[in-house]
Amino acid sequence: MTELKEHDAMLCRACGREERASEGYPCADCGTFLCLVCTIRGVTLCETCSAKHAADSPGAASGTASGTAGGGGAAPATPA
Predict the structure, then answer these.
(1) Which of 14, 55, 76, 80 could be a cystine partner for 38, CB 3.0 to 4.6 Å?
(2) Alpha carbon distance, N-terminus to C-terminus of the chain
(3) 28-49 pLDDT, tens per residue?
(4) What pLDDT, in 10s, does the model give residues 41-77?
(5) Where are the alpha helices (DSSP H) in the chain?
(6) 3-class SS at 65?
(7) Are strands 33-35 and 24-26 parallel, antiparallel or unpaired?
(8) Whole-angstrom Cα distance, residue 5 to residue 18?
(9) Shortest CA distance to 12 belongs to which of 42, 32, 28?
(10) Is 42 a domain residue?
(11) Neighbours of 38 (CB within 10 A)
């Protein structure tokens, strides 16, 4: 009888770890495989897409964080 040699694993495009294909999620932009550990850590983009987004808008990540914090602080300044 022949021996089955199935290999149900994929490489995570964020960290490079090899995981089972069923235990991961697609990149939000291109759909490549991201492992479950990266997904739990909040990684939603593969390394390539993350670098592409950083090059497209270098201050976008810090601007988004400060915009969120600034929006929360601006509301109480309105007169009652």
Answers:
(1) 14
(2) 81
(3) 999 999 999 999 999 999 999 9
(4) 999 999 999 999 888 876 654 444 433 333 333 444 4
(5) 36-40, 47-56, 60-74
(6) helix
(7) antiparallel
(8) 17
(9) 32
(10) yes
(11) 22
Structure tokens at 76: 């109480």
Tokens for 19, please give them: 């995981």
What is the Cα–Cα distance from 8 to 36, expressed in whole angstroms? Answer: 15
pTM score of the predicted model: 0.61
pLDDT at 7: 77
Q: Tell me whether residue 80 is in a domain.
A: no
Compute the distance between CA of residue 25 and CA of residue 45 in angstroms, rounded to an integer: 10
Domain span at residue 21 reads: 9-57
Say what the pLDDT of residue 55 is.
86
- 76 CB neighbour count, 10 Å cutoff: 7
Q: What is the rounded CA–CA span in Å between residue 67 and residue 60?
A: 10
Q: Give φ, ψ of 22 to 5 degrees.
A: -80, -10
> Is residue 79 in a domain?
no
The count of structural domains within the chain is 1
